[in-house]
């Protein structure tokens, strides 16, 4: 099989490519140049898209003896991921750019180009498993629960999964690093990338401020009383506790949390923690890793990349997914993804558009 291995410059994608070679596939490595400023060179950056990473990927490909190319997808990435990220925050929502990158870049732009060039599959270093089920290819959780990335892959369709390879899904990260060292890959001890790749310093609020400028508003309590002023509503997210800079303490002396963000009036409402409890989640733009479920289904859902799963009942009506939680969840923000699971199998995902407080159900 002809395989295009997406090589980020990290240890995971390097070992995934190595395993594809070992499995007998005809492998070509490709590094995705996603930065609009290719001259940037940030040693120790928190992301995964620097010139240093590109060079690490090329060195790994040389060790493996496979052809290697760099694809410039900076403009596509900026339009589909960065601009989406900024506009979602401006609208008072909390997006996950990794899901959008998987949906729009790695398994759309890259996969489409790969298939057009005659490749059979795209291989990545994601920690997830692919299982051939009775209705086609299924996406399952990885063996290593601490590294499982099935949540950020919950946007993939059955057709995309049919042309994907995730060689690391049955391994633990410690095993992958040992294997990389044994194969002579210099990235064996390279730290994992983390945070948002296009916010290399980890300062999301600062990044958004540069993109959107100051948009002052007020912080109010549930009665509407003004507690403080802020520079921008987009700097807050539902469930946030720290950095509120309130002028006076709550009457009961307990901490206050962000309950909602109104982007038009730039009003941030805060209140006690128990007001964060959500009993129902509504999502739109569903993406199914297989046939859409019919009627109401019992499942477990995950609402954060590394969050716990929650027992739920989901019902699908057209492009709307309604999820009733068995036990309330705290701090669910519009814009996040809700991913549905049947045991380890990913059923699909939707973008959270609305939540209903547990106390009102």
TrEMBL record:
Gene Ontology terms: biological process: tRNA wobble position uridine thiolation
Active site: 101, 197
Entry keyword set: ATP-binding, Cytoplasm, Disulfide bond, Nucleotide-binding, RNA-binding, Transferase, tRNA processing, tRNA-binding
EC number: 2.8.1.13
Official protein name in the record: tRNA-specific 2-thiouridylase MnmA
Database matches in InterPro entries: MnmA-like, MnmA-like_C, MnmA-like_central, MnmA-like_central_sf, Rossmann-like_a/b/a_fold
Family annotation (HAMAP family): tRNA_thiouridyl_MnmA (MF_00144)
Domain tRNA-specific 2-thiouridylase MnmA-like central: 207-271
Alphabetical list of SUPFAM superfamilies matching this protein: Adenine nucleotide alpha hydrolases-like
Molecular-function annotations in GO: ATP binding; tRNA binding; tRNA-uridine 2-sulfurtransferase activity
GO terms under cellular component: cytoplasm
Location within or outside the cell: Cytoplasm
Native species: Actinopolymorpha pittospori
Reaction equations catalysed: S-sulfanyl-L-cysteinyl-[protein] + uridine(34) in tRNA + AH2 + ATP = 2-thiouridine(34) in tRNA + L-cysteinyl-[protein] + A + AMP + diphosphate + H(+)
Domain tRNA-specific 2-thiouridylase MnmA-like C-terminal: 282-352
Region (Interaction with tRNA) location: 147-149
Presence of the UniProt keyword Oxidoreductase in the record: no
Record: residues binding ATP: 6-13, 32, 125
Entries under Pfam families matching the protein: tRNA_Me_trans, tRNA_Me_trans_C, tRNA_Me_trans_M
Primary role: Catalyzes the 2-thiolation of uridine at the wobble position (U34) of tRNA, leading to the formation of s(2)U34.
Family: Belongs to the MnmA/TRMU family.
Site keyed Interaction with tRNA: positions: 126, 336
């Amino acid at each position: 099989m002809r395989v295009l291995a997406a090589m980020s410059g990290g240890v995971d994608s390097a070992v995934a490519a190595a395993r594809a070679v070992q499995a007998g596939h005809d492998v070509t490595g490709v590094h995705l140049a996603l930065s609009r400023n290719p001259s940037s060179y940030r040693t120790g950056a928190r992301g995964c898209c620097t010139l240093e990473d590109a060079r690490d990927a090329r060195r790994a490909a040389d060790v493996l003896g496979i052809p290697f190319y760099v694809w410039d997808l900076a403009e596509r990435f900026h339009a589909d991921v960065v601009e989406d990220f900024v506009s979602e925050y401006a609208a008072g929502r909390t997006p996950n750019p990794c899901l959008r990158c998987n949906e729009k870049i790695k398994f759309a732009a890259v996969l489409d180009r790969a298939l057009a060039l005659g490749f059979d599959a795209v291989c990545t270093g994601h920690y997830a498993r692919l299982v051939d089920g009775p209705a086609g290819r299924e996406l399952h959780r990885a063996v290593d629960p601490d590294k499982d990335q099935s949540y950020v892959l919950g946007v993939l369709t059955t057709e995309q999964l049919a042309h994907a390879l995730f060689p690391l899904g049955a391994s633990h990260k410690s095993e992958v690093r040992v294997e990389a060292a044994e194969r002579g890959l210099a990235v064996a001890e390279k730290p994992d990338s983390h945070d948002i790749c296009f916010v290399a310093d980890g300062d999301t609020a600062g990044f958004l401020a540069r993109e959107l400028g100051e948009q002052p508003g007020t912080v109010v309590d549930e009665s509407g009383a003004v507690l403080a002023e802020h520079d921008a509503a987009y700097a807050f997210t539902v469930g946030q506790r720290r950095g509120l800079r309130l002028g006076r303490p709550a009457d009961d002396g307990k901490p206050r949390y962000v309950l909602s963000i109104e982007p038009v009036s730039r009003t941030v409402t805060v209140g006690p923690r128990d007001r964060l409890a959500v009993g129902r989640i509504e999502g739109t733009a569903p993406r199914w890793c297989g046939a859409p479920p019919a009627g109401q289904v019992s499942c477990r859902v995950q609402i954060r990349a590394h969050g716990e799963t929650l027992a739920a009942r989901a019902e699908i009506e057209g492009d709307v997914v309604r999820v009733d939680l068995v036990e309330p969840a705290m701090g669910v923000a519009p814009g996040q993804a809700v991913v549905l699971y049947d045991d380890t199998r990913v059923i699909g995902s939707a973008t959270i558009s609305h939540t209903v407080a547990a106390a009102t159900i």
